[in-house]
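Worked problem 6 (solution included).
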Amino acid sequence: MAVKIRLQRHGKKNFAFFHIVVADSRAPRDGRFIEQIGSYNPNTNPATIILDADKALAWLNVGAQPTLTARRILSYEGVLLRKHLQGGVAKGALTQEQADAKFAAWKAAQDAKIGSKVSGLKNEAIEKAKAAKAAEAKVNAARAEALAAKKAEAEEAARAAAEEAAAEAEAPAAEPAAEESAE
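Solution. The predicted structure is:
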């Protein structure tokens, strides 16, 4: 029986998440499985991976073959590195303490890399929000200027109309006086 470590799809259309399972290769993708060893959610940034590394390593040691995506996830979590280091310990190339130290150093570097990505995404979101707020303030200032110009234009038109009305009111009174003096 060929045993695979693979992904089992769950979720809804266009918003899938996956369970990482150990299953018989002949079983359907979302069907029967032997053991669930984790989950993978690609919808978050960075992707959320919850994995029982000890169970995954145990299954790799007894011959389970990961699919391509599962292999990448196991590599990202350091399970394949631990398997490689265990092989070195078994051959006598290094001691268990050296293997643990190498894995701890790799894990610290990986955590720092993930932490910097998360902080970079947060900083990027903050900068984007600041830029959007500045753009909105610029648009609001332009609208305020346009409204002020329109209001000033309306006031100017009202003054001109008032002056014309005042001039017309004075003109009829002046015309009869001019006519009487001409007779």
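Discussion: The longest helix spans residues 96-182.
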